[in-house]
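User: Some background: our group keeps a shared notebook of sequences we're curious about, and every so often someone picks one and asks for a predicted structure to add to the entry. Today it's my turn. The entry only has the sequence so far, pasted here. Could you supply the structure so I can complete it?
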Amino acid sequence: MKSSVIVFPGSNCDRDIAVALEKFQIKNQMIWHNDASLPKSDLVVLPGGFSYGDYLRTGCIASKSKILDDVIKHAKNGGLLLGICNGFQILTETGLLPGVLLRNKKLRFLSKNVFLKVINFNNRFCHNYKKKDTIELPIAHNEGNYFANEKEIKKLEDNDLIAFKYSDKEGNINENTNPNGSSQNIAGILNNKKNILGMMPHPERLIDPLLSGEDGSLMFESLIKS
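Assistant: Of course. Here's the predicted structure to add to the notebook entry:
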């Protein structure tokens, strides 16, 4: 399996995701945002971080980068595309995923581990989470408050496009388990073809028991096995 991680000025999680991909023997390349073409890839990753310093809006400037033309073509042709944190914000800015990421409800940066309920297993990213449907992953964001209007939320629900929701350790989903004010506790969503996943938590940060856990590993194992 081959992957490409897009590197933007200001991003700080591109190397983290590269380490995770390489651990699971996915052949990865780092692609500069100003490159004109994308190498042949099974998976493209838009990493977390603060591309362009989060100026204008988070992900806004990065969504206009030269390489994004090829990234969008890759996704529309059925290639796998994963956007983590700032990458999720970029996906909404390009229109590849609906909605927007707003400032956290309490207007402060959040950096901590949270629990997630896996809502959709029928996609190449989450298949292995059938083994463990309530997981723990880190978040680190200032604009992680997912918002979409009622019509869009209904579309996501009706088409089973919600991948993760914030929950407690037992998988209960309610207002108290929502760290940032996201609509319906949404932490990650898929596109209609389920080849694009945008999520705020960081699976690449929990891939080793020495680094507090392996719940992120199940995603990379899913990608390989599927």
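Suggested note for the entry: Residues 51 and 181 are 23 Å apart (CA to CA). The chain is about 20% helix and 25% strand.
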